[in-house]
Amino acid sequence: MAGIKALVGLSFSGAIGLTFLMLGCALEEYGVYWPLFVLMFYAVSPIPHFIAKRVSDDTDAASNACRELAYFFTTGIVVSAFGLPIILARVELIKWGACGLVMAGNTVIFLTILGFFLVFGGSDDFSWEQW
Q: What is the pTM of this model?
């Protein structure tokens, strides 16, 4: 039952983050859809973790080179997702208010992705077959 509550909470927070992103694009005052390019970063950010989990050996070492490289790439993707709206606002493609809404959406979405990995990625006893 705890898994279902976590899944509902994570999906609710993901919906809140996407709402911030859509508000930054669709409000009449802003009306430009350039910030939607951060959706690409949301989709790409978990990929290094999945590759590292698949490729790395199953030892419980404190540090693993493949895992550290995945953390590095994921950090670069997340920083790029926060940098894109700032660059778009600096070149005046979007307004600063839209940039703030997109940054709030980025924060909520990336915390949701982190929460998903903390809740469902740590234990091996979780199975999607129970749904």
A: 0.84
> In this predicted model, what pLDDT tens digit does every residue of 49-76 receive, in sequence order?
888 888 876 666 667 888 899 999 999 9
Domain count, the chain: 1
pLDDT tens by residue, 32-53: 999 999 999 999 999 998 888 8
Range of the domain at 86: 1-120
The verdict on residue 127 lying in a domain is no
- Give the contacts of 102 (CB within 8 A, at least 6 positions apart): 20, 21, 24, 35, 38, 85, 94
Element (H, E) at 14: helix 2-26
